[in-house]
Amino acid sequence: MSKNPNFTVLLVDDESAWLRSFKLMLQRTAAIDNLITCQDSRLVMELMTRYDIGLVLLDLTMPHLRGEDLLVRIKTEYPHVLVIIVTGMNTIDEAIRCMKGGAFDYYVKTWGEERLSTGIQHAIRIVELERQTRQVNRMLLHQEPSRPEAFSPIITASREMRDIFCYVEAIAGSRHPVLITGESGVGKELIARAIYAVSEDSGNFVSVNMASLDDFMLEDTLFGHSRGAFTNAHTGREGLTEQAKNGILFMDEIGELSPQSQAKLLRFLQEEEYYPLGSDKPKRVQARIVLATNQDLIARIADGSFRTDLYYRLKAHHIHVPALRERKEDIPLLARHFAERTAAEFGRTPPQLPGELLLMLTQYDFPGNIRELQAMITHAVSLGKELLRRDDFEALAACSDEEANGLNTENMILNYLLEMEDIPSFADMKKIMTTAALLKTGGNQTAAARLLGISQPAMSKRMRECS
Description:
The chain has helices spanning 16-30, 44-50, 67-77, 92-100, 113-142, 159-170, 188-199, 215-223, 240-243, 259-271, 297-302, 308-314, 330-346, 355-363, 369-382, 394-397, 401-405, 409-419, 426-440, 445-452, 456-466, and strands at 8-12, 35-38, 53-58, 82-87, 105-108, 178-181, 205-209, 224-225, 237-238, 248-252, 273-274, 283-284, 288-293, 317-320. By secondary structure, the protein is α/β, with parallel strands linked by helices.
C-alpha cells in the first residue's frame, strides 16, 4: 500500500509523550502515515542519510544538539528539505533567527491541532510540488520515458507525445489531481491509464463519466450512501471514491458539470475528504484523482459557466493531448495498427495500405481524431478487400478527383519515400538534390544554388562534398 506522503516526515523532539501524541494527531487528522520519530538530536543527521526525508518537524530546546544548530546543518547538507520549527517557546526574536537560518515556518505547540495539521499539510504539498518540478526537469532533459512498456497501448511516433510520457513519469508519485484536456477521440483515457500503470498503485482504476450525473447522483455515485440515507436506501453502498482506494479515480467530461456540482467537486478536492450520504463521519480520499475534458475551460470561464477557482485547483498537473491533425506522423502507424487488429478480429489477412492511400489519410483533418480513424479503418477492412483504395473511405471518397490528385511536389516526394523500403539518409538526399539542380540548370552553379535556396559559397561547398 502506498504511503502518504511519498517521502518521509521526521519528527524530532526529546519529549517522548509529545512525539507519540504528535504522530497520532497527524495520522488521525491528515492521514499522514509516512512518519519516523527521533528523541536524540545527535541521531538526526544519520537518519537523513538512511531515509528519503522531505520534511523535518524540529523542536528547539533539546539536550546534546540544539534545534537551531541542527537546523543550520540540515539546510547546509540537504537544502531541498523543508524544516518547520515546532516548539513550546513563543518569542519573536527566536522565530526571526530560525527563519533567517532557513526554516520554512515556525509553530508553537499550544496553537491547537487544526492549525498545526493544516500548516504541515501545506508544507507537504510544497515539498511534493518542488520534487515534481525537479523530476519533470530531469525527465524532459532525458527526453525518453524510462518505462516505455507503461505507454505501449499508445501508438505514436510524435515527439510531443513522447514529452507527455516523460511528464507522466515525472508526476507519477504526486497526490495532486491531474487534468487531461484535448478534443474528443484523442485518447485522454489512455493517458489516464498510463498514469495508473506508471504509478504502480495497488488499488483499482475506476472510471466515471461525469456528464451523465446530476447534482444528487454525483454525490451518491462518488461518495456512496449509508442505510436509510433516502427513500429506498435499504442497504448502504460504497461510492466510486472508496472503490478506487489506493488506485485512480478517473472523472471524464468534467467540463459538463453544473455550477452546483462544480462547487461539490472543488470542496472534495480541497478538503480531501467526503461524507457518504446520510453519514456524519468523514472519510479521507485515498485515491489519486485524474480528470479529463474536451471543453475549452478558459472559454467556459470567460462565459461564466466554469468556476475559476476549480480550474486553478485542477491546474497543478495539466496534460494537453494534441489532436491527430497536429501529429500526422502517427496516422500511418495507427492506420496499419487498426487494420491488423480488425483483420485479426475477422480472421483475415491484413489488407495492403498503399503509400498513396496513407498520404491521403495524412491530408485529412480527422475532426473525430483517433476514434474517427479507427472507425474508418474498421469499415474499410470489413469490406474484405486485399488492397484498400481511396473509394473504400467515405470521407476520402467525398473529395473531388481534383482535390485527391492535387498533390504538390512535397507530397509527391513523400509518397515516393513511403513506397521505398529504406529511405535515403540526409547526406544522400543532399547529393541527390544537388545533382538534380545542376542537371536542371545545365551545370550553372548560380542558377542551381537559386533553385536550392542556398548561397553560391554554400553551393560550391556542397559540390566539393559530393565529389
